[in-house]
Design brief:
This protein is mainly α. It has one domain: Orthogonal Bundle (Lysozyme), CATH 1.10.530. The chain is built from nine helices and no strands. It is globular. The two termini are 24 Å apart.
Length: 223
């Protein structure tokens, strides 16, 4: 049964437990990031590379979707966990996204797409803070676009080459989540190396550490 837009599917891909423990262990030594001082990093330098058919398919499907996903859930406990998370995150994000509907649609999409890709939602919120400071139309000096700073070549690799699509909220967040999942798989679940690859700085500590620190702003027991 389809439910209202404050509800979500929780499936077998949603655990992300290993990745969550890894980034928490690595981030434990960092000081908490200041909300007002945490600006966008030098982001969006993913390397163009051959893609598995499953990755290509997931990215292509994002282009075909024009509306925020409508989350569903399998039981009342999952729904309540989502609503608690949504309410808390909405308050924390209010200064960055004052419009209520925009804020809810953004959070709803992040929740949905992170679980779809089997990623830790808290870590992805930290990544978005570092990448774009939650600005939908952010463009980096190397041309990366949107919330998750997706390089334009991705739209050519799996779509029609129209890079303006990367400013569409769901497309951008799904691309970012699928790309990060791809890098996690390549790095056998090591979030430190996967985040570095996402940023184009594999093996260097600055970007992963920035994401771990920013993620502390979005920790919630239901995430």
């Amino acid at each position: 049964m389809r439910l209202q837009p404050f509800e979500v599917v929780m499936d077998a891909e949603a655990s992300g437990g290993i990745s969550r423990r890894l980034w928490l262990l690595r981030g434990a030594a960092l000081g908490a990031a200041g909300w007002l001082t945490a600006g966008p990093a030098q982001a969006g330098r993913q390397a163009e590379e051959p893609l598995a058919d499953s990755v290509r398919s997931a990215l292509s499907s994002a282009i075909a979707n024009s509306a925020p996903p409508v989350p569903e859930f399998s039981d009342i406990n999952q729904r309540l966990a989502y609503l608690r998370w949504l309410g808390t995150m909405s308050e924390r994000l209010k200064k960055k996204k004052p419009d209520f509907q925009t804020r809810i649609e953004f959070l709803q999409t992040v929740w949905y797409e992170t679980r779809r890709a089997g990623l830790d939602t808290t870590m992805v919120m930290g990544l978005i803070q570092v990448e774009s400071a939650f600005r939908k139309f952010a463009i980096s000096r190397v041309g990366a676009r949107g919330y998750m700073q997706i390089m334009p070549f991705w739209s050519r690799v799996i779509g029609d080459g129209d890079a303006s699509r990367l400013f569409h909220m769901q497309t951008n967040i799904r691309f970012g989540c699928v790309i990060l999942r791809h890098y996690l798989d390549r790095e056998r679940g090591d979030t430190y190396l996967a985040l570095g690859r996402y940023n184009g700085s594999r093996g260097k500590p600055q970007y992963p550490n920035a994401v771990y620190a920013a993620a502390k702003n979005w920790v919630h027991h239901d995430a």
